[in-house]
Amino acid sequence: xxxxxxxxxxxxxxxxxxxxxxxxxxxxxxxxxxxxxxxxxxxxxxxxxxxxxxxxxxxxxxxxxxxxxxxxxxxxxxxxxxxxxxxxxxxxxxxxxxxxxxxxxxxxxxxxxxxxxxxxxxxxxxxxxxxxxxxxxxxxxxxxxxxxxxxxxxxxxxxxxxxxxxxxxxxxxxxxxxxxxxxxxxxxxxxxxxxxxxxxxxxxxxxxxxxxxxxxxxxxxxxxxxxxxxxxxxxxxxxxxxxxxxxxxxxxxxxxxxxxxxxxxxxxxxxxxxxxxxxxxxxxxxxxxxxxx
Length: 293
What we know:
Elements (H helix, E strand, L loop, with lengths): L10 H29 L1 E3 L6 E3 L3 H7 L2 H32 L6 H9 L6 H12 L5 H8 L10 H29 L3 H9 L4 H30 L2 H7 L11 H11 L3 H31 L1
Helix pairs in contact: 1-12, 2-12, 3-7, 3-9, 5-7, 5-10, 7-9, 9-12, 11-12
């Protein structure tokens, strides 16, 4: 039976909401208001004087070929990270769900990388992929592959995609494994008796039943790759070589903190905020559908 707590007045509920509201105002509403205000202003590099410019910062932003290139680069990066992280998670979860000895240890080992911070993941992969001292780089050179992600644009993008996806695979693995374990074994046994094995059983039985989970993970991974991989990219390539790995988040940092173009950086922040709100709404939509299902 559902139990509800009924307060005699509004004072106690209001006091209970004060800490959360204070955090929301301090860390979300106030910074948002500051960013929106700065996006319609032009400030000197030290922020000592400002001039109202209206939408000039946004107009300059969407006519800037460097920003448009960063948008395309971010789309490629997000698609690659999402596809790789979700695909590997599904593959590993299918094997970990099988009746094999020590599968509990395998599952625990596959979850550990998610505990690594993005910046730490970038440092780890920077050491592994270092052109002179990296173990992976040495192996690639032994195989006849000339590896130097510090100079090669394509290799740099491969490096940041791999490092970003490596950490997110663990998160996806948990959800996919839970989805596999929620599928009734009677359905799988019936499919096995009907002769559906291996790839055919996965394609016709498991994949359709995992579809809601995978749709949710695609949205989550898009959000992650677009907004939570700055630490990995900054530690690994700093957006280089040139601008080969400069995604939208990295460009906001470079323009605002390094180049001190505060108006353009604020306008980019507002655009990213709108994107976050849209992706978050999409994420809640999938969560609601999963709950109703």
